Each structure stands twice: as C-alpha cells, then as structure tokens.
Amino acid sequence: MALRVAVDAMGGDAAPAVVVEGALQALDAAPERLEVQLYGPRAIVEAELEKRRALGREGLLLSDAPDVIGMAESPATAVKTKLRSSIHLGLQAVARGEADAFASAGNTGAVMAAALFILGRLPEVARPSVVGFFPTTRGRCLVLDIGTNVDCKPEHLLQFARMGVVFVERVWQVERPVVGLLNVGEEPGKGNALTKAAYELLQAAPDLNFRGNVEGRDLMHHAADVVVCDGFVGNVMLKVGESMVTAFVEMLRQEMQARGIDAVQQRQVLGLLRGVLRRFDYEEYGGAPLLGVNGAVVIGHGSSSARAIARMILAAAELVEQDVVRSIAEAFHPA
Amino acid sequence: MALRVAVDAMGGDAAPAVVVEGALQALDAAPERLEVQLYGPRAIVEAELEKRRALGREGLLLSDAPDVIGMAESPATAVKTKLRSSIHLGLQAVARGEADAFASAGNTGAVMAAALFILGRLPEVARPSVVGFFPTTRGRCLVLDIGTNVDCKPEHLLQFARMGVVFVERVWQVERPVVGLLNVGEEPGKGNALTKAAYELLQAAPDLNFRGNVEGRDLMHHAADVVVCDGFVGNVMLKVGESMVTAFVEMLRQEMQARGIDAVQQRQVLGLLRGVLRRFDYEEYGGAPLLGVNGAVVIGHGSSSARAIARMILAAAELVEQDVVRSIAEAFHPA
User: Fold this and answer.
1) Is residue B136 over pLDDT 90?
2) With contacts defined as CB-CB under 8 Å, which chain A residues touch B240?
3) In chain A, what are the domains?
4) Cβ contact (<8 Å) for B245 and A243?
5) A cellular component term (GO) from this record (chains A, B) (predicted)?
C-alpha cells in the first residue's frame, strides 16, 4: 500500500521551486511506496512541474490550494482567514483519510495552529510538541519540547516523555529508550519548581525507563535517548547548539588566518570539519515531527533545500509506516 | 594601597595544594598591589607553603580556619555548623574590612549561602547572581543568571541587567553595554510569561541600553554585551556550550580516524583546535563574580588548576580595583 504524503508546495523560503524539486527527489528515493500530493495554487505548481518535465509523473498528484500563507504572516489570522491554503487543504486531506501524513516547511505557527484545529489532539494529550534532534557522540537524542510550549506544567513534561519514547522506539528502533529530565544538577531534588515536580511524576511512571536528571553537559554524551524540558529551555538550547557550530567554524578560520596557514591546508581542515558538521545538519533529518496531534505531521525548516524537503517527505512517510500516531494514542491508553 | 584578597585555601577538588600554588602564581603576576590571605587549617596550609619554600613570603598571609567544608557537603548544614571554616572566616574578614575581596573554588552553594549570611545583599538587590562568561566571535558576553536563581520573577531579570552592565562597564571597560533578553524569538511579544513581562521592564528602564530579545543563535555572534535569563536556562545553556566543545573535538577525532588521517596530521589539526578551545576555557577567566552581595566575591570552578586559581584571585582583586560593589549599589540608587 502506498504511503500518501500531502505536501505544502508553498511552504519554505524558496517555495514552490525547491519543494517541487524535493518532492521529485523523494519519489526517486522511494518510488514504489510513496505517493506525493502537492498542495498549492494549481497554475504555479504546474509550471514548476512542467519546467522539470514532471507533469503527470507517477506517484505525484496535484491539488489546487489557491490561498498562500506567507512565512512571516501571523498564524492566528492566517489560519482563520486563508481556509483554502495548502496548509489547510493538506491537513484536511489527512483528516479525511485521503492522505496519510502532511509535511510542510512553511509557517511553523500556522502549521501547528491548523493541525490542532483540523486534526485535533490525541485523547489525553494536553500539549502536542514539535521535537528536536540533538547530535551526540553516539548518534543523536530526541529533545522535546523545543519551542511549541514555552510555559509548561510538570504533567506536560511527563507527556512529552511518553510521546518521545514512542517515536524513538518506532522510528529509531531503540528498545526501552532511556528518558532524562533536563536539569541543573544530577541529584534528585535539584532544579526549579517545574523540574522538581516533573521528576516526581517521571519517577513514578511505570511505563518509562527514567534515568533521572540530565545536565546540559551530559546531553551530547548521550545521557538519554529522550530528553524532556519546557519549550523555552529546549528552544534556547538547540539554537545555542546550532550557533556554536557555526561560530566554532568561524573561530577556526580566524585561528588559521592568525597562524598564517595556507589556503590549501585551510581547505583540508574545513573539509574535515564538514564531516563533523553533517551531524549537526538539519537537512539530514529533514523535519521535526509534531507529536500528539491526531495525524502524522512533519514540519521542515523554512530554509530547507530540495534535499531537506525530500528527507522531510520521507520522514513523514516513515511516521506512517511505523504507525507512530496510533502508538502514541496507545501509550496514553495502555490496554 | 594593596588589594587584599582572602582566599579559601581548602576550596576546590585539589585543595589545598593547587590553591597554594595558584596563590603564589597570583603574587608573581601582581607582586606590588596584591596581598593574599590564605584561610585554612594552619598546619595543613603551612605544610603546603613549606613544600614550596614560601612560608613568610611577602604579600602572603595565613589565617587559621580549622573547619573544612567538603565539595559535596550540603551547603545549608555546612554553613550553619562549620562556623570556623575557611569560607566563613574569609568572608568575615571582608565584612570587617580586614580583606577587600574573597575568592573560593570551593562548595559553590556554601560560598553563596555564607556570603548572603555574612555580607548580606546590597540594598534593593533581591537576588544576587553568579555570572557566566560566554565566548563570542567578537570576544565574550556576560550571561546572568547561570544557576543561582532557577525560578525568577521579571524584576529579577531587570536587576541582573543592571548588575551585569556595571560589571561590563567597569571590568571590561565597555561603554554603554548593550543588554539583551534571552528569548525564543526576536520580536517583542515573543517568549514565555517571564520573558514577556521582563521585556516590558527592561524596555522601560531609562538607565539601560536595551537591545531587545536575543535568540540562542545570536548569542555567540555577540548580539549583546550583557544577556539576562533565569538561572535555569542560563545554567543549561552554559553547560551545553561547554559540552559541545568537548563533543566537537571527539567527533573531529572520530572523523579523522574514519578518513585514515595519519597521527602527525591529526596532531596538527588538534593543535589548531586548541587555539579555538582556549576561548572556551574557564581557566582564562578564573572565576565568576557573585554580584549583588555587599562585598567582592569570586567563585572558581571546583576543578580549577593552579593557573585558574591565580586568575580567580586576580579577578577578585580587579573587582576591588574597579570598585564594582559600590558601583552596583549606586546603579540601584541613582544620584
């Protein structure tokens, strides 16, 4: 059976060209199992397909969605007024069972607001969450929340843990994922009001493999597979991480300049760095799933390249294949 | 006039040997202006001095403090029961005007609790704060709070800004330091309940050069000289930053191994990195000032080397020389 992914053709800084290109790359990578449904203004998307001689390509469908939500538009307004946008119609296709997943590199706030409105939350999930991937020396860990929920209650962190575990089990195929609570110290009893209370809840949850508190410094050394925190902290942490990498490269350049290292050697060292940087590259992951809504949704980076779009679409297909949404629902309603 | 720094000879993982060694290095670096007062059990500290033939060295005093507070001891209990510790007696010397500053690489919680108890807060300072230094591509910025205050109110962030500005003005000699509020987005109105309210306060403060919100990714690109946040976020961020650097080096090693790069070249690349890593090295800074108490206090890293101890002592002397404590008091009571 095909995995039908509805794709926001107008989502992203370089949409629709890059999205169309990425959709074709995704189909090349997984031709048999994938069906891509492009949502966007028909004439515009058709023109992009024609440019690439891809009109009528097998596995590629086009659905007209005349309204366009800009990257910087207010989500609240856009979601209420642009009811025929690619975001609305793509999500509605999922809600109606005409698509299995929705993927967008568009306006994150609008995608989330529309997903909540159109798909709704899974029963008992108070706060759906966009997750982040954090590179570690042993691979990567899942961090949630990373910005969707900037003011959290302890029970939200418990729910994040539960959702994150399902994702890591199903998609990364990790058995009994280790859960850590991001905190300022390892000992129980450390932390702010939120983490102290969340610790108790996590500790008492029989379904979780809870390791306890995890400090910022342990994260990259893979202290846990799933790290939970409120979205404010998670967002700051991920952004600092991203910027450290670019700053690090800039500082290394400065250092090489200062030491008078020649251009050839500079290129060699930077080439070496590129291998390391790839681990920090969101393009490898394509997009972050929005967990906790009643449907498979992946949100990509606004500056996604075609390659990142292709990965985002494949990530959405994988959510479906691994039955992540139903597994989360079950984790909240143990049989 | 000499700058008299009371030093906790028993503070740090490798105390007292490393502290005594560091004190001597500090005196070597600033022989004329510095007086170091070592606080610790007399016999133990004397033995260390004797080993180094430094007993009776000019500028070096020894005061008996028989109680020892362990690095892992509960601050609350230690502060109440070990009244003749190096931490208590050193801080009391400052309170009595027998020393100008106190420096310790010991139990951070105990130093802070004792400093609050013995020196007290400056008038109107609700929350004294340990500050952190964050390397940027243009130097470094000051981040506060970094763990002293894990649950903050908006007015605390305003006070952090005020104290941080004084430090950066006086010690780093930056004119009209730019203040940023660490947040999840740049636009006003972004953030959690705390940062939204803090934004309003910072914006309305006529004495501050407030730039607005600063995202995690802008920090390393020197978006501000003084970045304020609650201590939970600051602590996580600094620790992630530290660990990213070590993880980065480990990943680079892995990459070189994988590419079969020979040992000589590996050493060359790692040598290059060392120049960059130095910017992230706390030893360069020595210790973090505790701002907002009625006295000059610097807290060093528990794992401080002799070199870091020396820098910590010199940093304490600089707080005195730049009259930071009085300047903070004045910032809270404009003439």
Assistant:
1) no
2) 216-217, 219-220, 237, 240-241
3) 3-125+292-332 (3.40.718.10), 128-284 (3.40.718.10)
4) no
5) cytoplasm
